[in-house]
Amino acid sequence: MGRILGVLRDFLSFVISSFFTNECLICHIPLYEPDGILPVSIQDGWPEGTVIFLQNRFSFNILWGISLPGKVLCNDCWLKLRPVSDYTFLDDIPVIAPFRTNETLLKVIRYLKFSGGISVAKPLSWWMAKALRNYASPCDSALLIQKLIIPVPLHNSRRRERGYNQASLLASCVSAELGCRFSADLLVRVRNTKSQSSLDAPGRRENVLKAFDVLDINKFYDKDIVLVDDLVTTGETARECIRILKLNGFSNIIVLSAGKSLSAAD
Ligand SMILES: [Zn+2]
Hints:
Elements: H1 2-19, H2 50-55, E1 59-63, E2 66-69, H3 75-78, E3 82-83, E4 88-90, E5 93-96, E6 99-100, H4 103-114, H5 118-135, E7 147-151, H6 156-162, H7 166-178, E8 181-182, E9 187-189, H8 201-208, E10 212-214, E11 224-232, H9 236-247, E12 253-260
Parallel strand pairs: 5-12, 6-12, 7-8, 7-11, 11-12
Antiparallel strand pairs: 1-2, 3-6, 4-5, 9-10
The structure holds zinc ion (ZN).
Zinc ion binds next to helix 3.
């Protein structure tokens, strides 16, 4: 019976995936599974594991174990992202990201935010988890499992409008990748704010001031926090979240995002 159900699930996964145009978000070439030929040369700067990533057949479950392919970029377009290995800081808090924000990453993040792009959360979170593992020294990497992964929250009204919080999608995928706990509602957004993208740094700071609060502090008091967002630009949103977390007694915090614009000199 179990075997018949498994075959049925595979069949339904195949039928449903064939209704989706599986093409590269950036250059629109069709994506095949497995995706064609690996690039001849991978430029300097791409870390060990890149080939494994490019060969990985990502998929995500939609319902009852039925899965869809999670590949969203062709190999050449993945390699248009700019990997970074430097660690930057917001005051004393490390900001870890696998990529420097560039035009390609912005397109990927726009898809994640506005096109129901759950398929993009899986491959991005693979890189984010890897960046976090690299940051933790070998002796600390076993301690990663004790961290609590939380997203930068969206206001309820924005989440209802969009249907999901993209930072929460990334955070839950990172926690699954690392085997850590995940909480979508430790930190909440108590005030709806304007989009940060049109504001300068002082405007961004003003916009998010007192926009967050911590719920149910006792449940998670002893946990180290990894705060996840899609992008860190000037860092004002993350800085305000950190301020509230610290006010509530959380002192061991790391910020993790898919891309950052901050440089080591900031
Ligand atoms: Zn492409």
